[in-house]
Amino acid sequence: MKAEAEKSTLAEKENKQAPSKNKRVWSEIISWFWVIFAFVLIEGGVAQARVIPSGSMENTVLIGDHLMVSRLGYDAGIPFTDYHVRLWRNPKREQIIVFRAPLPDQGFPDLIKRCIGVPGDHIKIVQGQVYVNDVRVDEPNAIHTPGAAGLPWENFPERGSELAFSDVPGWGAEMAKNVVNGELVVPAGHYFMMGDNRDNSNDSRFWGFVPRENIIGTPVIVYMSIQGPGEVWEPGHTGERIATYFRALIHPREIRWNRLFRTF
What pTM was estimated for this model as a whole? Predict the structure, then answer.
């Protein structure tokens, strides 16, 4: 009788433990669901972390700057997919914008540039000086190479036909269609982007307008900045990037401390 009572007691304990184990499993599943949901929500529609691999926006943004980019109101999508939708906010002149470059042969890479022209704007560049709607633009952040004022990309679109449109061969013909009285007119639903490092920037002068649906967002803050060669920050260089982070831990001088938490 005693043995049977003990067996009955053990069975009751097992029956009580089974539901509690199921509850723990479901609790874990629900917890992970909310973690994934929060990631999708934040990454897909609120903010993204980006690292700068090129010097086209120097000295405003440097190679190795790690940026937090706000997508809020500009774009929303599902992370790791090509699905996205445009939202209600639009870029403004002189605003720094992250976007998908209209370069299909390169896989539509994400770039960061300054918005120079919005739909309807008339743009011309004369010896490096930008004019929008016949008004000379004050550009304290733009830098130019000495002696470059006479080059074709610094006299645009007047000498635009002299540029090499290797990335988008059709841009030359499209540009010509949008030139009125020596000025480039930005069509509806498109934007004209240029890098602050004017003579070292592959931008709208060379491959054309950026469609509104390609806009991702605008940078908010520099949360980390590490000195390192540009190729380290390019996609596909995971090992080199990890090694760069490790070196920064050992040699803190490679961190640009004065750039941390800089806002835009």
Answer: 0.82
